[in-house]
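User: Please fill in residues for this 298-position structure.
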């Protein structure tokens, strides 16, 4: 087989061999990415009749998005969720990476401690934090009772349920992003760092003028992944709140799941999915555009 591929006429037409090498990946990408997107676009033009059949309705599903209060609530929750968890996780990850990159005793155990939450499945992590948030015997309320503060229903209050989910996400995600920053810090050119140390004794100056510009590609990568995770992580909702109370903690992907599998309205769920894809694509494009002059690759 190898001799057949590398002999004429394959050698005179290398593009054919290149496409053959790409064929397995393109097949999987098309089957599990592009075909579902095309199917979602096609399904969004129909509506479920409730008897298992569908009816062509054109753009009615799109118009219904603007009038759906639960969808608006889920979108608003997800926007606040992303605005808080993404920058907080990135800043915390960078701080931890800078800390464990120094010469410290027990540095390996410290790195392991920061990365350990990442190893837990989200469902397992949610069960751990469920013990923290439990109103009667939860660890947080036991800590507050030491100061004479009564227990609080963190997951049952509309004012705190979404924030409780945010804290779990930050705890789970920061250690994962720390690994990327740590790898980037260890790959920085030592001559540039030494030159910056000779130029200025201020650590803050070296960090702002030398380290951060060199970490810009990693920061862009982490920001995009953190943003995508903020819209796709919903496992903890099934354990902690199930979107309640009164949709106070409902996120967009969780509402899409409920629409498709609880309400059995897959055409409307397809419309919501396309809206979510469009939002993620637009925000990612804006991130690339705004960082074009600040991100430089070697």
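Assistant: Residues filled in for all 298 positions:
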């Amino acid at each position: 087989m190898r001799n057949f591929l590398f002999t004429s006429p394959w050698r005179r037409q290398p593009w054919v061999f290149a496409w053959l090498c790409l064929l397995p990946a393109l097949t999987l990408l098309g089957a599990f990415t592009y075909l579902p997107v095309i199917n979602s676009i096609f399904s969004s033009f129909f509506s479920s009749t409730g008897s298992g059949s569908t009816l062509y309705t054109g753009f009615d599903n799109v118009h219904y998005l603007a009038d759906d209060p639960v969808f608006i609530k889920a979108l608003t929750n997800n926007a606040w969720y992303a605005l808080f968890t993404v920058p907080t996780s990135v800043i915390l990850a960078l701080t931890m990476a800078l800390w464990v990159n120094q010469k410290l005793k027990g540095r390996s155990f410290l790195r392991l401690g920061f990365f350990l939450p990442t190893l837990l499945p989200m469902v397992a992590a949610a069960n751990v934090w469920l013990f923290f948030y439990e109103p009667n015997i939860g660890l947080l309320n036991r800590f507050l009772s030491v100061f004479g503060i009564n227990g609080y229903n963190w997951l049952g209050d509309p004012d705190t349920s979404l924030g409780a989910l945010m804290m779990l996400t930050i705890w789970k995600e920061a250690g994962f992003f720390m690994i990327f920053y740590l790898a980037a810090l260890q790959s920085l050119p030592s001559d540039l760092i030494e030159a910056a140390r000779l130029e200025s004794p201020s650590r803050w100056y070296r960090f702002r003028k030398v380290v951060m510009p060199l970490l810009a590609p990693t920061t862009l990568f982490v920001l995009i992944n953190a943003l995508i995770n903020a819209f796709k992580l919903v496992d903890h909702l099934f354990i902690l709140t199930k979107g309640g109370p009164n949709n106070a903690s409902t996120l967009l992907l969780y509402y899409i799941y409920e629409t498709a599998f609880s309400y059995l309205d897959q055409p409307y769920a397809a419309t919501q999915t396309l809206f979510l894809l469009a939002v993620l694509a637009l925000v990612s494009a804006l991130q690339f555009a705004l960082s074009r002059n600040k991100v430089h690759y070697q």
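For context: The two ends are 38 Å apart (CA to CA).
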